[in-house]
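re: the backbone from monday

yeah here it is again, tokenized this time
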């Protein structure tokens, strides 16, 4: 029952207050204890100022004491009633005690419940979008199959009369479309309408709703994760229950050629994850506890990437610079522009000099723009991230900044046979590094997780998942574009994610070594110096970014080998690559 201040709610409050004094020993009576016993009623009384709520509930406490004292005077006198009367009088005369801590703690708990309700609402909105998208795509696929079969019938029956009966299967496809529209589509429509109503429901965000419905969550509606599983299973069932004609099936992509088992210390990693997923309690955050320590250690070692050694010219320059910076930092940094104007012989040294110049320019300003605690995400991108990426990859790669749509994500979202369908943009990404050739194939995605001084952990977690999805889409697009390629070259390809959080850059890598098993790992964390006193961080920072570029170069070589092998296996390859 939900407490309130009127009607049955008022009687419930009085009953709870009476129960406190009846069930609690007189020696334990106190204003603090009274508030704790009636905490649910305190939480439902509103979110006014602490002073107003303190005044209201202290008045309630004193009213109960006065009533208790009067009831004791009117009733029969005994030892218990005399003791209750004495304690009630004492508490009425007692000096007020401070309950500010109780109200602050209560406000924090209410705020936490509201945040949990907001997160739950977002997941259910995601489920709404997923249901709606799945319904539209499934309907388009089935109808397009019917149209395709109808167009092929006159041409093929004229050439092969004996196949007229076989190709006449559009009637079966029509039956499948009708079955979908009559049985499955209404179920999905019902769920979609249910979530649409929930989106606009103001009670949806109240902590009361969160507490009351947490136990019945399974009855109210499936979570976002369960919804995704149901959609996949339902879609597969609809496609498979009709006849399977080779003419309408697409050629499987390269990932289908990968090995299905991944055995480490006699443990099949893929089978273990699939088994946990079938049980319904699969959670990416608990992957580590599914395996023994020796298995997990081996899995971590296989994702390790060693930093590359810079050229001798760069090593000597960095060594000399660090030595001189310790002795006389100002003099050495003043000579940087002159060193850059000499046009260094190697691209690596050119990158190092330009990055140093960019940071020195910020350090020497008064005030230092990197110490602006109101700095926005876009400002950090312009001052720090964009120059590093431009100097590092600008010689060969195409760099896109500013909430640009990821091509690989757009390809996945637009996989529909309906030519007239409205094209959907890929997920928005802060920065993307792609090749100028090979259809602008993407290799690096970069996300800035909020303003550098905000320390927004929720934004960090969301962006990390966003990077995972983006890198998965990139690998899937490569596997789709080079279906006839050699799988050994595909297994060498890694794609990378850069996540800037505060003044650290988290470097991630993802590859696809085994069927349906995307390995995603954090390779290293790079510190970004903000002021002159942190200038010795520059050497490990530039070495780390040079390593990232070297890893990308190795993956690009593997991509070129994959493309060549695909062209050898199919001379018609690349004549009509997948639109992206």
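seq for it, each position gets an aa:
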């Amino acid at each position: 029952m939900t407490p309130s201040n009127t009607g049955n709610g008022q009687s419930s409050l009085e009953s709870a207050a009476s129960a406190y004094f009846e069930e609690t020993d007189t020696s334990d009576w106190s204003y603090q204890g009274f508030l704790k016993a009636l905490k649910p009623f305190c939480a439902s009384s509103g979110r006014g100022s602490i002073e107003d709520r303190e005044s209201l509930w202290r008045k309630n406490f004193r009213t109960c004491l006065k009533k208790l004292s009067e009831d004791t005077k009117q009733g029969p006198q005994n030892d218990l009633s005399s003791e209750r009367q004495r304690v009630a009088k004492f508490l009425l005369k007692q000096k007020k005690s401070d309950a500010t801590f109780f109200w602050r703690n209560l406000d924090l708990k209410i705020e936490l419940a509201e945040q949990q309700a907001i997160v739950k609402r977002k997941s259910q909105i995601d489920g709404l979008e997923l249901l709606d998208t799945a319904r539209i795509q499934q309907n388009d696929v089935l109808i397009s199959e019917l149209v395709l079969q109808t167009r092929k019938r006159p041409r093929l029956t004229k050439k092969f009369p004996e196949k007229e009966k076989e190709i006449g299967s559009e009637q079966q496809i029509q039956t499948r479309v009708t079955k979908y529209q009559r049985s499955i589509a209404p179920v999905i429509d019902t769920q979609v309408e249910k979530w649409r109503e929930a989106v606009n429901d103001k009670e949806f965000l109240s902590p009361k709703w969160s507490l009351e419905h947490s136990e019945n969550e399974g009855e109210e509606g499936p979570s976002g994760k369960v919804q995704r599983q149901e959609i996949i299973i339902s879609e597969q069932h609809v496609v498979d229950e009709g006849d399977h004609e080779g003419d309408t099936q697409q050629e499987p992509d390269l990932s289908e050629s990968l090995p299905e088992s991944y055995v480490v210390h006699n443990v099949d990693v893929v089978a273990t994850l699939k088994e946990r997923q079938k049980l319904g309690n699969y959670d990416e955050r608990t992957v580590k506890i599914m395996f023994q320590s020796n298995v997990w250690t081996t899995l971590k070692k296989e994702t390790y990437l060693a930093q590359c050694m810079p050229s001798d010219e760069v090593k000597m320059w960095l060594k000399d610079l660090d030595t001189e910076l310790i002795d006389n930092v100002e003099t050495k940094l003043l000579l940087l522009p002159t060193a850059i104007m000499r046009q260094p012989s190697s691209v690596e040294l050119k990158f190092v000099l330009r990055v140093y110049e960019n940071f020195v320019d910020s350090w020497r300003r008064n005030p230092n723009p990197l110490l602006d605690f109101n700095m926005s995400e876009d400002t950090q991108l312009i001052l720090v991230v964009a120059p590093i990426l431009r100097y590092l990859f600008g010689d060969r790669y195409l760099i896109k900044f500013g909430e640009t749509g990821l091509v690989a994500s757009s390809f996945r979202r637009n996989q529909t046979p309906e030519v007239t369908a409205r094209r959907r943009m890929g997920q928005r990404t802060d920065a993307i590094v792609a090749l100028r050739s090979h259809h602008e194939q993407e290799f690096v995605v970069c996300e800035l997780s909020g303003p550098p001084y905000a320390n927004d952990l929720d934004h960090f977690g969301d962006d990390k998942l966003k990077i995972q999805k983006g890198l998965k889409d990139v690998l899937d697009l490569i596997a789709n574009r080079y279906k006839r390629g050699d799988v050994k070259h595909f297994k060498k390809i890694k794609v990378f994610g850069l996540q800037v959080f505060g003044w650290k850059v988290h470097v991630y890598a993802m590859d696809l070594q085994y069927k349906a098993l995307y390995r995603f790992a954090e390779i290293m964390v790079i510190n970004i110096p903000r002021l002159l006193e942190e200038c010795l961080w520059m050497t490990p920072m530039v070495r780390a970014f040079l390593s990232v570029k070297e890893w990308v170069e190795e993956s690009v070589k593997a991509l070129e080998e994959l493309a060549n092998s695909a062209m050898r296996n199919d001379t018609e390859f690349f004549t009509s690559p997948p639109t992206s």
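The longest strand covers residues 504-514. Confidence is low (pLDDT under 50) at residues 1-6, 199-249.
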